[in-house]
Design brief:
By secondary structure, this protein is an alpha/beta fold. The protein is built from six helices and twelve strands. The strands form two sheets. A ten-stranded mixed β-sheet has the order 1-2-4-3-5-6-7-10-9-8, sandwiched between helices. The protein has a two-stranded antiparallel sheet with strand order 11-12.
């Protein structure tokens, strides 16, 4: 179902996926909301298709509402120092308020791919009280000085997924492709995860494991690095070796120019494993 809300005098659109009628779905039926932000040059619908419609699976249990908002001109204003007056932080905050009003004080998870992941990073720092957790796919922290975080220092569980063959946002933070073509460069995916672990006051050493390999995955493999400590929000980093600038799913093995998507994990399953509220 497509819908709109008004933010600062401007109508903003989103798509809502539920397994019951949006008009009849009750507060008791819906126990969590996932807001999934698209990448640059995408829309809510196109990132839904880009992920093979796999994120919709989280709504299959009838208790999760999946929301795909649309950025203006197919992008998100993730940097308050950038040109333009689009307040996308206010838009996503208004969406959270809207669904809290609709379903009650249930958890709202924010997730984003690429440019959407960059906006998630900003939201983590500027208004965490509206969100239960965050997921960042194919995005890393900005370059030093790239964003003046107004950090409220409220710990938040953070899930990260990143491919080592990502040419748009290099896993290692640097790369010849990024340098030559002007792709965004910043800290590595690992340093980004370490940053969020430190922000959550986690001092335990990370735990590493290699996930079971599926034959269908071909040359891609997946490792999981977990930063965990009692009574503190966790940070997980899925490293997709050989994976590209994609949203991992089992419906598409490769995407033109974006690269390979592994079959060893899916983004939907990683979200459900990390956030128990999404699998009730």
């Amino acid at each position: 179902m497509r819908a709109e809300i008004e933010v600062a005098g401007r109508k903003r659109s989103y798509q809502l996926i539920t397994r019951t009628s949006a008009d009849t779905q009750s507060r008791q039926e819906t126990s969590a909301v996932l807001i999934f932000l698209h990448g640059s040059k995408q829309t809510g619908q196109s990132v839904r298709e880009f992920a093979g419609n796999s994120i919709d699976q989280l709504a299959d249990n009838g208790h999760v509402a999946v929301v795909y908002p649309d950025g203006l001109q197919k992008r998100w204003n993730h940097n308050k120092n950038s040109s333009g007056s689009t307040n996308d932080v206010a838009f996503i905050e208004s969406l959270a308020d809207h669904f809290h009003g609709k379903y009650g004080p249930i958890p709202v998870i924010i997730a984003g791919f690429s440019n959407g992941g960059q906006l998630v990073i900003r939201l983590i720092h500027e208004n965490q009280e509206k969100f239960h957790g965050a997921a960042i796919i194919g995005a890393t922290l900005p370059r030093p000085g790239g964003l003046d975080f107004a950090d409220q220092l409220r710990p938040l569980p953070v899930l990260l997924i990143h491919g080592t063959s990502d040419l748009v946002v290099p896993y290692g933070g640097e790369g010849w492709f990024a340098t030559f073509f002007g792709a965004r460069r910043g800290p590595s995916a690992l340093k980004t995860a370490q940053y969020f672990a430190a922000r959550n006051s986690i001092s335990n050493p990370p735990l590493h494991e290699v996930l079971p390999h599926r034959k269908e995955s071909g040359r891609t493999t997946v490792g999981l690095t977990r930063f965990e400590q009692d009574a503190l929000p966790s940070v997980w980093l899925y490293t997709v070796r050989g994976g590209g600038h994609v949203v991992p799913n089992r419906h598409r093995k490769a995407i033109f120019l974006a690269g390979r998507t592994t079959q060893d994990i899916t983004t939907a399953q990683a979200l459900a494993d990390f956030f128990p509220v999404l699998r009730k």
